[in-house]
């Protein structure tokens, strides 16, 4: 899967390079340092190595497997009835691929059930999903579920095979806790088939990993199993008891809190621990302590669904009472445990208990009962092919009942010894072969993986090289295009500079000509009209009305020409000063007999106005100020400039006498309106007698 992602990422990168690499991106690369081109492949490899993460299901300790017990057929059927409907519904659903957790949960339940058909169908579905998603943690847990199923069926070679498969995957996923749990299950299995040395080796490996997690339930059970290996001397037993009692006090502190184990599993684990401690004290002959731990174990086991632990504790407790001489007839109490073993299909423990009861009857000289229980043990061992126990039962029969079919028993003993040895050799060979095959498979997978990685590395190197060459070629082409564009831009700039220089010369010439015309108009024409008007006033003619009319026309003509002269002249003024500063100077120059207080307020930038607009606005304001000086008799006058509703508004407000519409004032107002029309401005005048006048000049910002 990692290799597939690698290949997919490479193809995606090529596609993006060809189809999505815009000119902007190339310009960015071009402007960047040259080393960027060499860094690009390294960045790509970095994203590949750290970006292609496998999906990994979070591991949780399999407490049901850790504290597994034999189910009766009734219990298996009950589990099947409870979960089968949900299992079939998921298999028939189109959304089964989205129900990983539900499928895994059902598998963990149905592995103990009688519906093996549904179990294997769900396993097949989950295995396919895990492989497609490359979820190796889920696949490993799935193999462990298979191992649990085969363990319940006593197909031990299959159990070992699936545990080894899971181990390989946990190593690959680097999940150390899950690996330790898996190794513990292997050690438990090897102990079960009497491969003690191999079991202890694996257990030590698991415990070494679990040192960093002392409260892990696996650690608790693994340390208990560790005490089973060496019981040759009292010293070995005492050392084992030290470990067991440390676990005992650790669990004792957790009782009622249940941080290590949930309540149901806690009671099972604690009862089992008390049993193991009691058995060690029995071996040491400290029966009082053994009895106390048995009673504590029975107290914790009374509400447990599985009666196996209770049967063990019951057996040990009555054995202690018998050895203490407190109870002579314990067979009836032991039969309860025997019946539990038979009901739970635990022939191993049933055989051991049968031989113990037979020994009790033998001590009491009840030969018939002793023989009867030994024969029960023999039948169970023979039926279930427990050759080791069968051999022990035959030896006990020969020793305790030498007259009972001696020749046949001797022959059976020989055959059993042979079968036992053959079975042990078969188990060793089978487990060894499984381990060897798994090792070879791992080696082959490792070599294949290395080859695939090498192949994809070569492919990726070629792809990166091709991308590198492509980028370099594109950059060179782009570089030529940029050089050509720069040359063209420089030439365009030269042409533009020439045009601007020409326009500047033209503007200077026009400006000089304007100033000359303005001077000529002001110094020549205006003065001539003034002289003509003055002389006309001195004329003595009978028609005074005509005389006054001519004088008014001359005054109007003088005013118009003066404004034209000023218009030409203001072009020069506007070139050197900001419009706001010009308005401020105009306000400061105002003076009249009424000593009107002029003020100016402006909060916007007026330089966006055109010169044409500035000149007309200036002259309008100037005309307004002249009217205030001549007619308003105002104490205050304010020029305010603001921006409202997309309009620049010039407001001239005084607190004078208000507007009186005489002929002179009418000419000034007409000039103001004409100038407002020239710049497409809105003009509004508000005036009220003895309350002053307000003139509003509004220019649409979009017209600037």
UniProtKB/TrEMBL annotation:
EC number of this enzyme: 2.7.13.3
Membrane-spanning parts: 6-28, 35-51, 453-473
Signal transduction histidine kinase subgroup 3 dimerisation and phosphoacceptor domain segment(s): 513-550
Pfam family, one: HATPase_c
Segments forming domain Histidine kinase/HSP90-like ATPase: 615-698
SUPFAM superfamilies: ATPase domain of HSP90 chaperone/DNA topoisomerase II/histidine kinase, TPR-like
Metal-binding as UniProt keyword: no
GO cellular component, one term: membrane
Catalytic activity: ATP + protein L-histidine = ADP + protein N-phospho-L-histidine
Matching Gene3D superfamilies: 1.20.5.1930, Histidine kinase-like ATPase, C-terminal domain (3.30.565.10), Tetratricopeptide repeat domain (1.25.40.10)
Keywords: ATP-binding, Kinase, Membrane, Nucleotide-binding, Phosphoprotein, Transferase, Transmembrane, Transmembrane helix, Two-component regulatory system
GO molecular function per UniProt: ATP binding; phosphorelay sensor kinase activity; protein dimerization activity
The keyword Membrane belongs to this UniProt entry's keyword annotation: yes
Protein known as: histidine kinase
Taxonomic source organism: Myroides albus
């Amino acid at each position: 899967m990692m290799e597939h992602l690698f290949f997919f990422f490479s193809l995606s990168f090529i596609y993006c390079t060809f189809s999505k690499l815009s000119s902007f991106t190339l310009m960015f690369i071009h402007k960047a340092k040259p080393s960027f081109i060499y860094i690009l492949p390294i960045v790509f490899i970095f994203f590949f190595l750290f970006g292609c993460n496998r999906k990994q299901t979070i591991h949780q300790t399999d407490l049901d497997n850790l504290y597994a017990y034999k189910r009766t057929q009734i219990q298996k059927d009950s589990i099947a009835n409870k979960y089968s409907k949900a299992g079939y519904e998921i298999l028939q659903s189109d959304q089964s691929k989205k129900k990983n957790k539900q499928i895994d949960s059902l598998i963990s339940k149905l592995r103990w059930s009688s519906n093996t058909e549904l179990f294997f169908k769900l396993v097949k579905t989950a295995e396919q999903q895990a492989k497609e998603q490359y979820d190796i943690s889920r696949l490993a847990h799935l193999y462990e579920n298979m191992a649990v199923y085969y363990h319940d069926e006593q197909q031990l070679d299959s159990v070992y095979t699936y545990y080894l498969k899971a181990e390989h995957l946990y190593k690959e996923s680097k999940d150390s806790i899950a690996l330790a749990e898996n190794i513990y299950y292997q050690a438990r299995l090897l102990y079960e088939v009497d491969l003690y040395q191999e079991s202890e080796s694996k257990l030590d490996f698991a415990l070494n990993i679990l040192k960093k997690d002392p409260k892990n339930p696996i650690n608790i059970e693994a340390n208990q199993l560790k005490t089973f290996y060496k019981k040759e001397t009292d010293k070995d037993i005492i050392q084992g008891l030290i470990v067991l009692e440390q676990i005992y006090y650790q669990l004792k502190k957790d009782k009622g809190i249940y941080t290590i184990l949930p309540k149901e599993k806690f009671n099972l684990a604690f009862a089992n621990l008390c049993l193991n401690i009691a058995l060690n004290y029995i071996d040491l002959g400290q029966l009082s302590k053994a009895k106390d731990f048995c009673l504590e174990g029975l107290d914790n086991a009374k509400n447990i669904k599985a009666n196996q632990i209770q049967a063990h504790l019951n057996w040990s407790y009555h054995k202690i009472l018998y050895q203490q001489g407190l109870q002579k007839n314990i067979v009836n109490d032991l039969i309860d445990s025997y019946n539990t073993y038979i009901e739970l299909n635990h022939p191993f423990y049933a055989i051991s208990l049968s031989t113990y009861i037979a020994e009790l009857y033998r001590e009491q000289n009840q030969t018939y009962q002793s023989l009867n229980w030994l024969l029960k043990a023999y039948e169970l061992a023979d039926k279930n092919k427990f050759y080791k126990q069968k051999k022990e039962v035959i030896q006990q029969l020969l020793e305790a009942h030498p007259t009972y079919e001696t020749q046949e028993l001797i022959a059976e003993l020989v055959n059993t010894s042979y079968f036992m040895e053959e079975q042990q050799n078969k188990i060793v060979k089978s487990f060894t072969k499984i381990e060897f095959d798994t090792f070879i498979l791992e080696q082959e997978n490792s070599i294949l993986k290395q080859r695939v990685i090498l192949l994809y590395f070569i492919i990726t190197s070629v792809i990166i090289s091709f991308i590198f060459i492509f980028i370099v070629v594109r950059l060179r082409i782009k570089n030529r295009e940029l050089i050509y564009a720069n040359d063209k831009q420089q030439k365009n700039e030269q042409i533009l500079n020439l045009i601007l220089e020409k326009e500047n010369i033209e503007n200077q010439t026009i400006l000089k000509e304007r100033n000359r015309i303005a001077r000529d108009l002001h110094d020549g024409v205006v003065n001539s009209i003034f002289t003509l008007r003055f002389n006309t006033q001195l004329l003595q003619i009978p028609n005074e009305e005509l005389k006054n009319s001519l004088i008014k026309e001359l005054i109007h003509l003088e005013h118009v020409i003066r404004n034209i002269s000023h218009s030409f002249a203001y072009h020069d003024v506007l070139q050197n000063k900001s419009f706001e500063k010009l308005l401020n100077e105009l306000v400061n120059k105002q003076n009249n007999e009424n000593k009107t207080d002029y003020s100016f307020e402006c909060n916007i930038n007026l330089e966006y106005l055109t010169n044409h607009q500035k000149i007309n606005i200036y002259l309008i304001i100037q005309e307004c100020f002249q009217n205030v000086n001549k007619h308003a008799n105002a104490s205050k006058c304010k020029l305010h400039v603001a921006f409202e509703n997309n309009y620049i508004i010039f407001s001239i407000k005084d607190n004078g006498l208000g507007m009186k519409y005489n002929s002179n004032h009418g000419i000034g107002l007409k000039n103001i309106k004409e100038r407002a029309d020239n710049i497409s401005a809105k003009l509004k005048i508000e005036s009220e007698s003895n309350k002053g006048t307000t003139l509003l000049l509004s220019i649409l910002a979009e017209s600037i």
